Amino acid sequence: MSELSVLPLSAWLNTYKGIGIIAGPCSAETPEQLATTFKALNVLDVGAIRVGVWKPRTRPGSFEGKGEEALTWIKDLKSIIHKPIATEVASPQHVELALKYGIDILWIGARTSVNPFNVQDLADALKGVDIPVMIKNPVNPDIALWIGAIERIYGAGIRKIAAIHRGFSFFQKSEYRNPPTWQIPLELKRLYPNLPLINDPSHITGKRALVASVAQKALDLNYDGLMIETHYQPENAWSDADQQITPQQLKELIENLQIRQKTTNNTFFNNQLEILRKQIDSLDEELLGVLASRMRVVEQIGLYKNDNNISVFQLERWNEIFQTRPLWAEKMQLNKELIEGVFQLIHLESIKKQTEIAKKNNTENYAEKI
Ligand code: PEP
Ligand code: MN
């Protein structure tokens, strides 16, 4: 699929200074919790209220949501809450019930968007329905799977679509519950510039103290919206207690957001930017020139190793490169991890090149023999 003709976020969600903000509790717990939280959110700059009624939990035994009962509480609150309500659906039956109780926006969770069968069932249930659908990234860092889920919903005729970036699960523990791996949503944005992109700093961080900084980072990267878990008593929440914030904290978070312009008409600024970009262009050319020269030396070494029947991969040399380059980088005020990553890629490419040389030589020798 090349282009998606989806509607901009502002066509179906009220925005605050151009940013669509969706906030609300992780789960609907009791009628009181819902009413108190919803009323507090009703007077804030949020475009929609989120709430989970079916909770996909990683392990059994945790609170799995109040289901249809919670939908009746939501319906009752609709007379006093004048914001659209969003909920998560994971099956055609959920879709049917959500529509029956007047839910305004649906989202597909990260544990559902991993499964094409599941997403297709949802798409089939949504055919002919005019409702916005937001698609969370799958739990694993697989952009094709995320795109596939979006395509299936698009294929059902839905044009009010947004992608929600909620981070990815990794075996290694980090400061975040679901590390953001920003390059994936940014690649999605590059491929589908029209597709609204919403950040979910609550599920990314897993910790309320970090929510504001990730939300700001998302805006600095031109995201179109934010989804933030908000509960009137976060520490007593039945699910995701560590990451929810209070409506008052949300109010402050929104007030403190730095919302930057995407472009400007200021000619002086634009000219200066142009000059600096020209410098980047010529530096990048230089960088590529050096890399090309390095690759030519790698090829020479490959031939030399081959002539002397020496194996391509030399552990000691690799260790030496991997230890020295990050140290050199630090001396030049460069990020050590960045340079480790760069040299891993360069080394992989060098091995590939030398293996090709060895393979070609083997084939030629074999051809000579027969
Ligand atoms: C949620 O939004 O509460 C939720 C379950 O999120 P995710 O699908 O991102 O884990
Ligand atoms: Mn949650």
Give the SSE layout.
Blueprint lengths: L14 E2 L2 E6 L6 H12 L5 E3 L17 H10 L7 E4 L3 H9 L4 E4 L7 H11 L6 E4 L6 H13 L5 E5 L17 H9 L5 E3 L1 H5 L2 H13 L4 E5 L17 H10 L10 H41 L7 H17 L4 H34 L1
Helix pairs in contact: 1-2, 4-5, 10-12, 11-12
The protein binds phosphoenolpyruvate and manganese (II) ion.
Question: Care to describe what's here?
Answer:
With 370 residues, the protein is of the alpha/beta class. It is 50% helix and 10% strand. The chain contains twelve helices and nine strands. The protein has helices at residues 31-42, 68-77, 92-100, 116-126, 143-155, 183-191, 201-205, 208-220, 247-256, 267-307, 315-331, 336-369; strands spanning 15-16, 19-24, 48-50, 85-88, 105-108, 133-136, 161-165, 197-199, 225-229. Strands 2-3-4-5-6-7-8-9 form an eight-stranded parallel beta barrel, surrounded by four helices. Helix 1 packs across helix 2 (68-77) and helix 4 (116-126) runs parallel beside helix 5. The longest helix is centred in the C-terminal third of the chain and has 41 residues, at 267-307. The model has no long low-confidence stretch (mean pLDDT 95). Bound molecules: phosphoenolpyruvate (PEP) and manganese (II) ion. Manganese (II) ion (MN) binds next to loops.
Count of helical regions? 12
Percent helix among the residues? 40-55%
Ligand roster:
phosphoenolpyruvate, manganese (II) ion
Sequence of secondary-structure elements: EEHEHEHEHEHEHEHHEHHHH
The number of E-state strands comes to: 9
Output the structural class. alpha/beta
Beta-strand percentage? Answer: 5-15%
Give the strand order of the largest sheet, numbering strands 1, 2, ... along the chain. 2-3-4-5-6-7-8-9
Largest sheet: 8 strands, parallel, barrel
Shape: elongated
- Oligomer state of the chains in this structure: single chain
Radius of gyration: 26 Å
The residue-averaged pLDDT reads: 95
Low-confidence runs of at least 5 consecutive residues: none
Termini gap: 48 Å
